[in-house]
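Re: [ENG-882] Designed sequences occasionally contain unexpected residues at chain ends

Forwarding the minimal case from QA. Structure tokens:
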């Protein structure tokens, strides 16, 4: 059953919170941004290509930061963007890059690029905002991983390895930051139907994956958003170090 956003968003307790959203321009990122602003949050929306964000209606609670989350210059840009409110309550790491390549075809530079965008970005963005979270005495990290690590993807070993690293990073960071009132969790979606995944995998392959789910339909970007916002909200105060799989019941044994 679907409920209107105006009924759900006030229940999240995100009104007035300051968030950084890395990877804001993709299909999932734009959905997260839309729901965050409807919930009353103030968002620093980070992406290296912000053209899609600038086509949306402007909001006084959105600051678009054109920066690459996977390098140190991008991290510096984010630190500058959050220096004015001097506060960060939540970081959502949603950057990722999934090309399909067989292992033999992957060069070291291609491997490094996937790891840089999908894993290094999590490390760098975390380092950029953690001092302000500590200053506030609490915080939320929600990192977007991938359910692909449970089964593996034959033509995506670099992506799966990077996203597995996100989970290891998040669980270790949860141990380190829990005493400071800061939680760290992962949302791990199955293959979500977006223009990018359709281009990489094709409709037939995605349809075959969809048929193997307990809920036999495609995963849409909005299916992922609810899990992200839940873990970012006060409702998840006592949840940390966890991986929430959003895949329609494809991998229930893990």
């Amino acid at each position: 059953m679907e409920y209107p956003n105006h009924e759900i968003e006030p229940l999240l307790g995100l009104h007035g919170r300051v968030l950084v959203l890395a990877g804001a321009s993709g299909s999932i990122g734009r959905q997260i941004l839309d729901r965050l602003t409807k919930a009353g949050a103030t968002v620093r929306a980070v992406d290296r290509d912000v053209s899609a964000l600038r086509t949306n209606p402007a909001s006084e609670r959105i600051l678009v930061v054109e920066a690459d989350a996977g390098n140190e210059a991008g991290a510096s840009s984010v630190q500058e963007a959050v220096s004015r409110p001097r506060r960060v309550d939540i970081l959502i790491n949603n950057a990722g890059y999934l090309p399909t390549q067989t292992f033999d075809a992957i060069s070291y530079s291609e491997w490094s690029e996937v790891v840089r965008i999908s894993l290094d970005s999590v490390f760098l963005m975390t380092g950029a905002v953690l001092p302000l979270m500590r200053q506030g005495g609490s915080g939320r990290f929600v990192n977007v991983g991938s359910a692909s690590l449970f089964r593996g993807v034959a033509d995506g070993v670099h992506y799966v390895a990077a996203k597995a690293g996100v989970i290891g990073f998040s669980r270790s960071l949860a141990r380190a930051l829990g005493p400071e009132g800061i939680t760290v969790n992962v949302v791990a979606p199955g293959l979500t139907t977006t223009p990018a995944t359709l281009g990489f995998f094709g409709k037939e392959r995605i349809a075959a994956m969809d048929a193997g789910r307990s809920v036999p339909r495609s995963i849409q970007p909005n299916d992922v958003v609810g899990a992200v916002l839940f873990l970012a909200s006060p409702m998840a105060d006592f949840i940390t170090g966890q991986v929430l799989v959003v895949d329609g019941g494809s991998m229930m044994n893990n």
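QA comment: On inspection the terminal residues look reasonable. Residues 5-243 form a domain with the Rossmann fold fold (CATH 3.40.50.720). Proposing we downgrade this to a documentation issue.
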